[in-house]
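so my prof wants the structure for this chain in the tokens format not the other one, which i didnt know existed until like an hour ago. anyway here's the sequence
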Amino acid sequence: MKADTTTAMHQLIEEVRNTIPFDIPEEVICSGICHGCSKKLLEFLDTELEDWASRITSGETPNLGDIQKLGKQSQKIYNALKKSGVVEG
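here's what i got, hopefully its the right format
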């Protein structure tokens, strides 16, 4: 049985939150090589995840395009954080 889009979005949000370290101290984020502002990227992604969680709670149903967009954004931010040394991969 295929998951519905709401379940898929919840799973994506959970996977991103488990993969990307949103709680690391600023001095760790802002030390070393910078490929885009890691702090701002983390803040942006955190806001996007919170927004989708809130929208789902309010009864909105994401479509496949919404899931794909959030997934792409998350992957791009993860790659930038990796280049900056914030995450290991």
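also thought this was worth mentioning. The mean pLDDT is 89.
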